[in-house]
């Protein structure tokens, strides 16, 4: 019989498979130049699908209270933590879509935010699970993993600050940019809960409790503080993507906003070039022949 944790994993498999299909559709719909946020969600969905598959296998193969620190459990812990990286990148990419209230300086800050995110991902993958916990179901994070999670926390503070600064210039935003900012502001409380859960797991040795452990902790606690939070955040982002203009709509809007005089001038200049070429090819040889023929007659 499938355990409680296994049921949660099966539901997560279904939800994130649906999210994966929807994110791929948005990637095609928005065009490659405007789809980095949806590509990040694709990576997140793949990460979560791999994580819950490993967790389901570990849950069914080993009793939760006696499981040894095998590669399955280590993989579950690593994938659970690094899933924050594409979530952060998707949020920063959505903020970068707000061109008018954002400004040039904030654009560079949001782009450079990807550097510590990649560094934290590398630290978490390299750190993994403390090998000293191999003899029992402790699954403690290493010091390197803790450093990676601390970087995540710092990146989240920068992300909240950037959201506040950009939202304070909401009067400059278009209707599309206002929708983006509203969605990100709505997602931040759920993001906070997710970050708090991950930090509690990484630094659980400070209070010696296993409740927040992603492998041997309380399933209900992880469900309420991490799993459902990511359901909501990704769902909000994908719902936003369905409301954003498609590639064809952006192209039509760009054509409508072009300077009509400049377009007319360009069109007339092309006509002038075509007529000049036609004259050079047909009229000039005819005039030369007429001049030669009249010269022969008058002689």
Going by CATH, the architecture of the largest domain would be Up-down Bundle
Overall, the morphology is elongated
What distance lies between the first and last C-alpha atoms, to the nearest angstrom?
Answer: 115 Å
Largest sheet properties: none
Keywords: Membrane, Transmembrane, Transmembrane helix
InterPro entries: DUF7702 (IPR056119)
Transmembrane segments: 6-28, 35-54, 74-96, 108-129, 149-172, 184-207, 219-240
Domain DUF7702: 4-244
Write the layout of secondary structure elements.
Layout: H1 4-30, H2 36-61, H3 71-82, H4 84-96, H5 99-102, H6 104-112, H7 114-127, H8 143-167, H9 175-202, H10 219-243, H11 247-256, H12 260-298
Helix pairs in contact: 1-2, 1-10, 2-3, 2-4, 3-7, 4-6, 4-7, 4-8, 4-9, 7-8, 8-9, 9-10
């Amino acid at each position: 019989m499938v355990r409680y944790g296994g049921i949660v994993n099966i539901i997560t498999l279904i939800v994130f498979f649906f999210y994966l299909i929807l994110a791929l559709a948005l990637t095609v719909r928005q065009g490659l130049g405007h789809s980095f946020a949806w590509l990040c969600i694709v990576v997140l969905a793949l990460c979560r699908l791999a994580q819950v598959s490993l967790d389901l296998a570990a849950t069914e193969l080993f009793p939760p209270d006696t499981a040894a620190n095998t590669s399955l459990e280590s993989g579950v812990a690593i994938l659970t933590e690094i899933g924050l990286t594409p979530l952060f990148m998707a949020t920063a990419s959505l903020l970068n879509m707000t061109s008018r209230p954002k400004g040039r300086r904030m654009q560079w800050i949001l782009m450079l935010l990807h550097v510590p995110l990649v560094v934290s991902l590398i630290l978490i993958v390299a750190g993994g699970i403390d090998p000293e916990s191999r003899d029992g179901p402790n699954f403690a994070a290493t010091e390197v993993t803790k450093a990676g999670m601390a970087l995540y926390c710092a990146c989240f503070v920068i992300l909240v600050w950037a959201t506040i600064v950009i939202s304070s210039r909401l009067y400059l935003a278009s209707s599309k940019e206002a929708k983006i900012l509203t969605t990100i502001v709505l997602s931040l409380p759920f993001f906070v809960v997710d970050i708090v859960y991950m930090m509690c797991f990484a630094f659980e040795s400070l209070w010696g409790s296993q409740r927040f452990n992603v492998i041997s902790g309380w399933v209900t606690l992880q469900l309420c503080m991490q799993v459902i939070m990511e359901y909501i955040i990704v769902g909000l982002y994908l719902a936003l993507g369905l409301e954003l203009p498609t590639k064809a709509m952006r192209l039509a809007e760009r054509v409508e906003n072009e300077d009509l005089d400049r377009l007319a001038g360009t069109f007339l200049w092309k006509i002038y070039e075509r007529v000049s070429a036609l004259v050079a090819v047909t009229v000039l040889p005819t005039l030369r022949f007429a001049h030669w023929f009249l010269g022969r007659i008058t002689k």
